[in-house]
Amino acid sequence: MTTAKRDTYTPETLLSVAVQVFIERGYDGTSMEHLSKAAGISKSSIYHHVTGKEELLRRAVSRALDELFGILDEEHAREGSAAERLEYVVRRMVEVLMAELPYVTLLLRVRGNTGTERWALERRREFDHRVAALLKDAAAEGDVRADVEVRLATRLVFGMINSIVEWYRPDVPDGRAGAGEREVVDAVARLVFGGLRKAS
Amino acid sequence: MTTAKRDTYTPETLLSVAVQVFIERGYDGTSMEHLSKAAGISKSSIYHHVTGKEELLRRAVSRALDELFGILDEEHAREGSAAERLEYVVRRMVEVLMAELPYVTLLLRVRGNTGTERWALERRREFDHRVAALLKDAAAEGDVRADVEVRLATRLVFGMINSIVEWYRPDVPDGRAGAGEREVVDAVARLVFGGLRKAS
């Protein structure tokens, strides 16, 4: 893909604008007209970069999915006990969510009306299953409690992590909750693994 | 408020239909026309019951808020150690969320464009602060870990609980995750207080 010299837009900056518009208006509620206005370039300039809004959606959710699946290939996600790998993956999920906030936010809002949306939901489910498998292994190794069903525990842990998109804002000093990235990662790891109750 | 004998609609059934439409289309995207079609009654019949869609929204979110605030007045939320009261409140929050699923779902999606929405957001914040205060007291009494900042811990715990609206469906036998109400309540309490790590 080549970038037109006559405008300052790159596929990357166009993507970033599109993601904001998708989040604000919803993907269904966004037209090429909306994208054109938000980006300040003509529709034909957009078509110079992409075939349409669905390609922009696919690129945006791919970016989030690639980062998330990438975690599973990292050394600490592949070596050590299942409980250690799980804790590493949970911490990295929170980091990726904060680093790629708009992309992950969009991924979490995908509903499934188009082929791209259904594909994204399928990939999300696949990622959930990979993490659930780690949790299951950790329970089998005796390091994780076995009195909460694996799928239910996975849903609840993902629920806690994904809820961060609702309030974390990197442009506010230390995020909106008065929490820096490191503090959020540590808090999630402590709560997910140790819970609120003080270790006696 | 009186109910017209000429239709079978009560304010209660109209409210239940309106909540479904608000959830599906978003409050902003819902017109009286949409409500009229979904309810199968004329707009003038709707106006017989309410002044407009904002009154329906207010009634719907009030129902969720009344149930949530009601928890704080219950005996076990007022007596015992802060940690015991907190655990009681967390369990009851999950119960209320599942029992009043569409109403709580709508409450969680409120964005703040109208007076009613801003009022609902303010009431939600007030509820969050009440629970955060309990958490703070429990930490002061030494029963809850003090190494996660109270507001951050509250946000994450609420994030886990609120995420249940994304997947729990009471009309599916035992919910979509294969989890019954009691199992979900126990799972949340175990994870929030004990975490995933097996007690050694």
TrEMBL record, chains A, B:
Tell me which Pfam families the record gives: TetR_C_24, TetR_N
Where would you find the membrane-spanning parts of this chain?
none
All residue ranges annotated as the HTH tetR-type domain in the record: 8-68
| Signal peptide coordinates | none
Residue ranges of DNA binding: 31-50
Classification via SUPFAM superfamilies: Homeodomain-like, Tetracyclin repressor-like, C-terminal domain
Q: Which named protein is this?
A: TetR/AcrR family transcriptional regulator
Q: InterPro entries of this UniProt entry?
A: Homeodomain-like_sf (IPR009057), HTH-type_TetR-like_transc_reg (IPR050109), HTH_TetR (IPR001647), KstR2_TetR_C (IPR041490), Tet_transcr_reg_TetR-rel_C_sf (IPR036271)
What does the record give as the organism's lineage? Bacteria, Bacillati, Actinomycetota, Actinomycetes, Kitasatosporales
Picking any one GO molecular function of the record gives: transcription cis-regulatory region binding
Q: Say which species the protein is native to.
A: Streptomyces coelicoflavus
